[in-house]
Design brief:
elongated, 2 domains, alpha+beta, 33% helix, 278 residues
Length: 278
């Protein structure tokens, strides 16, 4: 499994170190860890210096992760706020570079050790439909406090020691929102948001997440990755509401580039994890 790790920093010492040592920054003891070894992680390292780059972080990630199964960012805290939009698609850890520090290598390796361990734990969750389908819900249009908390955990706490415990508890709360439809005899369950909309991650593959105008590179990145894990671009949620024994949906919805538009009444929407719908 190919893992791309991108350092995001304008600290020249850190950038030079990352470019020089590349995947050797991942300690051998960590590579031999049972969980990491079982996933067969192979690492590709890259540097994104925001003060020198001619593209945005999402464009850089798309370029360097074309053949990757997982993508992670190790972000200098000085740039944390300016790349926060990437925490939906990428697994993001933070590092605070002190220009007076004498050993950047130890600092980076310590952060990478936590990052890789948590990536392996996340890979286990993403490999199981029971947790993966909760983690892939459209973040703009599934209205629930749990979704806000999910984004916050990945935005700011991905390297915390209690990350996995809190994430599993949150996934359990999201899954607790699942129930069957009320007025038909069917055991199939749906994720239900605060607006009583039903979300079902369907197995059908009759459409793909859109690219090209009016979509931008962030739409594309969010359509290919969720919290660092590559996701199918041809699977979506069926979104609808109960109307007696039937279903129908209408209303205002945000799309993958934050345009609010009205949807006329229909039986259901095809909505992808990045909120593109049709």
């Amino acid at each position: 499994m190919r893992v791309t790790v991108v350092l995001v920093s304008d600290d020249q010492n850190a950038c030079d170190l990352f470019n020089k040592h590349q995947e050797a920054l991942i300690p051998q003891s960590l590579r031999k860890h049972e969980r990491v070894r079982d996933w067969g992680f192979e690492f590709v390292m890259s540097v994104f210096n925001p003060t020198r780059a001619t593209v945005q972080i999402q464009d850089h990630v798309l370029r360097v992760s074309k053949k990757s199964d997982i993508v992670a960012l190790l972000v200098d805290t000085a740039w944390q706020a300016k790349i926060s939009h990437a925490t939906i698609s990428c697994f993001v850890g933070h590092v605070d570079f002190n220009p007076h520090a004498t050993n950047y290598k130890n600092l980076i390796q310590a952060k990478l050790t936590k990052l890789v361990r948590h990536l392996a734990l996340l890979a286990t969750l993403m490999s199981k439909a029971g947790s993966r389908n909760a983690l892939l819900l459209p973040l703009r249009n599934f209205i629930a406090d749990e979704i806000d908390e999910l984004q916050e955990i990945f935005r700011a706490r991905a390297l915390d020691s209690d990350f996995l415990i809190d994430l599993e508890l949150l996934i359990a709360r999201i899954n607790a929102r699942k129930r069957p439809r009320r007025r038909i005899n069917d055991e199939k369950t749906y994720f239900i948001d605060d607006q009583e909309r039903l979300f079902d991650y369907g197995m059908e593959r009759h459409s793909k997440v859109a690219t090209g105008e009016p979509h931008n590179s962030l739409c594309v990145l969010n359509g290919h990755f969720r919290f660092g894990w590559r996701i199918p671009t041809d699977q979506h949620y069926n979104v609808t509401k109960e109307a007696g024994v039937f279903t129908k949906i209408s209303g205002m919805f945000l799309d993958c580039h934050d345009v609010l538009a009205e949807v006329k009444e229909r039986s259901h929407l095809n909505m992808f994890p990045n909120d593109y719908y049709g």
